[in-house]
Amino acid sequence: MNDDATRQWYDQATIGQVHDLLADQGAKSVWVKRLVRNNNSKQQVWFANDLSDLSFLPLGTPTFAAGKSGKPKAGAPVVQIPVPWRWVNPRGAFEAPNTRLCYYPQYPEVRLSGFLQGCRESPSELMNPEKRGYEEGRCLFLGPVAGENGEPDHVVALIVGAFSPAAGYVQQMKGFRPGHLCPVVFEDGHEIGDFSVLEQALLKIIGRKIVPWRNVEGCEPIRPYVAPNAPGLTLEAELGIGENAIPGPDFDVWELKAIAQKDLAKRSAHRVTLFTPQPDAGWAKEHSTVEFVQKFGHVNKFDSAHEPVEYYFTTKDFDRPDEDSPEKLLKLRLTGFIDDRHFDTAGMVELVDKRTGEVAAGWSYLKLLEHWQRKHNRAAYVPYLKTGTGEDTLVEFGPLLTLGLSTSFGLFLQAFNDGKAAYDPGDKAKLVNGSWTPHPRSQFRISTKNLNAIYYQVEERDLSGKEEARIIPGLYSRIKENSR
104, 143, 146, 340: most buried by Cβ count inside 10 Å? Predict the structure, then answer.
């Protein structure tokens, strides 16, 4: 292929050629955004309302940067997240080392930036405003590529011209939404995120009494498996999901959560863990878990000589914002928070020593955001009932599903501020053979009855067909639809 033909391939590419170019570089799924006039290297590319919409991508560690936007509401620093990115063309894949996502919580929105800088063969012809960067209808295709450990490692991407066959295919594609990043549905393929696919998979296991097991990739399945996390791992194993430690979606683009119930015929509130970050600020950052629990926690167990052999740090060891207990040393508070769209990105959730005013432990919003960006904006909460003990344990999954649809980091902070989500630690230090052994468990949790505080829509579905689906609107204002 000569150089002139190579430069023009993007105006002739079919959807099949797009698939092959990205698949040959290791992409297992392909996504597309149809670009409008203001999507170019000068004005950035609008990608999503929230980072949770992009949890299928390998996102780096968030950092601050001074905001450059000229919009009236642009005052707070922008949060930047690096993305390992490679542009693909018929000659191969070429690294774009300065690619990053810019998160503006005040709007909220996430934009792609820096994607041409430092790349030897970037699609500058189609993205540079001085060339074809204002062409309406160009299409940006991308796909995540996993590394050797199975985790998302980098993104491969390409852009085609507005009048290419591939761009024409996108507008007629099932599930296409103008302005949004959409999964590409190839011929004879299902629409990514379609609930019916997950529904059909769940119908095969609901109502069965299953010996708990776990599917460890590359090894023989473990059966029976009766540790506390057995129901969740059994759910994944039954759906054909290999076990790994990768955050993000479990089935298609759905994140699965197994929730314990006492009766599968009705819904009961259950606390679920959102994430478990360790503090990145305050006294706790400079000291061990054992030191923290011994200083701020309580004795949970004594030996025969009445010497402490186990300490715990739980919710009984600190005051919530509306409490003031003289016997508690710490008080929980949020700093820099106004509402779900207005908060200082330098703020944090913190435990303050009431005697000294010192921050005993803090979780910066950047730290929490790093965990949040791994959460997915589609979650399925699947009820289970566990019976028996030991190797006689059985688990049964029920039909009363709860779906959480569309979320944002600002909603999490709002829910936390309003007491709907909570810091629920279970840190422990235990004396074992003369040495103190730490068991850190720094949990942020929410009850299933409050899920509409962190999702813009919650759906209650009965897969037995006995009840109609019930839609519950989010507790807080809905983000308006964007078409950019």
Answer: 143
